[in-house]
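It would be a great kindness if you could assist me with a short task in structural biology. A protein sequence and the structure tokens that stand for its backbone fold form the material at issue. I should value your view on which stretches of the chain appear to form regular backbone elements. The record follows directly beneath this note.
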Amino acid sequence: MMRDLAGPLKLIVTLWLAAASAIHLYWGGFGFPEPITLRAFHLLVFVPPLFLLFPARPGRSPARRPSLIDWLWVLAAAAPHGWVMWHWAAVSDRMEYVDPFGTEMAVLAILAIVTLLEATRRAVEVGLAWMILISIAYMAFGHHIPGILNSRPFSVAEILEASWLVPTAGGVYGPLTGIVATTIAVFIVFGAFMQGSGTGRLFSNLGAAAAGRFSGGPAKVAVVTSGLFGTMSGSSVSNVITTGAMTIPLMIRIGYKPTVAAGIESAASVGGALMPPVMGAAAFVLAEITGIAYGEIVVAATIGAILYYFAILAAVHFEAKKAGMAPMALRDIPAWREVAQDAHLVIPIAVLVWMMTDRWSGNYAAFVATLAMVGIAALRRRSRMGWRQVLESLTNAGLTMAPLAVSIAGAGIVVSALTATGLVVALGGIIKDLAAGNFALLLILLAVTVLILGMGIPTTPSYIIAAAIGVPQILELGSKALGVPPGDLLLPAHLFVFYFAVLADASPPVAAAAFAAAAIAKASPLISSNHATRLGIAGFTVGFAFLYDPGIMLRGSLADIVTATAIQVGALTAICAAYAGFLLRPMGWASRLLLGGAGLFAAFYHGVPDLVRLAVALGVPGLIGAVQLVRLPRPVQP
């Protein structure tokens, strides 16, 4: 829980974070400094404030002011990054693992690692802090472990250098920190300005106007609004908190169980990281790792994201119809003319999309779109941003970037340990051996691995670690199983891992988004996460479809694209209807089992031609629907 600072200290921290965000935005438009300088500055401005903002022990530490110990943590966190900035030329010129790593550097490395661990524990996830610590411990003691997990001995200096000062390969100042300090940082600023300009109001009103008049309106509004909000933040938990405070009570009021309402909101919020054009931070990491243009990734991910939200809407529709739920009250549904009053705020998003698809760099596109947002917002008084709104937006961007900075730097340490020890090869080998040459089993094992990693690790570091372990195995075995070159599988393989890393936020037993939604609904977190998982079933089907049905990535002929999409639409409709027990009318167990089995067969079984899967996906729901249509009671003639 973040502190509520007061007085001059609140002003200082606000100005500090706003200035840090503004500098990152400026660099996005006018060019970045030397990589090591940029990365050190990024951590210097974002790590120390976390010790002022987050108490060491919530409920015991001072709630409105930092303690003396917190100030010591601030100084300790600033020292190593300040030193690197001051000696940037020497650090850039040194030969890694060859030039001496003296006592001064060792002390600074310890300070950097320890403060990073504590900042991660306070502001991100305890689980990630433990994973970082275990990775370092493995470098120290891995040579004592027998079998496939055995590693070579590492000296203390080698461990500290690999964790802290190997900018070309990993560690605190590795490429991952560079990605966050460049493209991701500027996009976070853009998202903050979207919210500050009233784009959130536009999305909320659009969701209510589009879906509020239908049965179970509040649930559908939650789905649409959360997807739109996700284009701004890409953070499932922040989406839940922002939209769930409004939609969850509304859903409960019209008849949804609190656990179902929490599940709907968390599933919809998690999908925000999958929704183009911005998606989440992990998507930018994906672009950097693969070297694939972000615009190409956005295009490939579009149908999958639409399918994800289609499935949630279908599920809540069937639930609402079965329970006879009413739409939103007319007084709560904004008129379309009110939505139109904010329509101009779509222009900066269109600018961003155009620049990304025209292959401008992501950081420059976000820089231009941010300036466009300020200029376009000024066209109407209700959206105009004064200096207070600009300051608040920059500060909010800093509050988002600070925890992300430490989590990515921590992931850099984990990746450095995985590569230096060869553990990434060992884990990949274990999964490969368990799969025994079965590509489908390999994907299932990797999906489970990513979901387990996501229990205690945020989406981006979870994706990074899982991609390092699993993608090489997918490329090797998938090329043989599917008969395509490994290069053609690069993006599908990464999207597969990316989807499951995102879904981990809503999957039990530990699901950050579902737990946040459950807190608002005053419901069971575990049951809420179970509902979120079944509502997000499209994430599982689409994840596998990226590899087996490339048509959903807009690859292949028009017939391939239409067939792959139609299979998913039919399969997801069948699965959602079977779970709810309602298609056009309530269904018995026999119909539900037939419908659910047909949906799962069409979505996951690739041992038959696509036309057979398509016939099952569309034919079985169509047949059951036709039977129900015949049996529906006819209206009484007056």
Observations:
- The chain is about 75% helix and 0% strand.
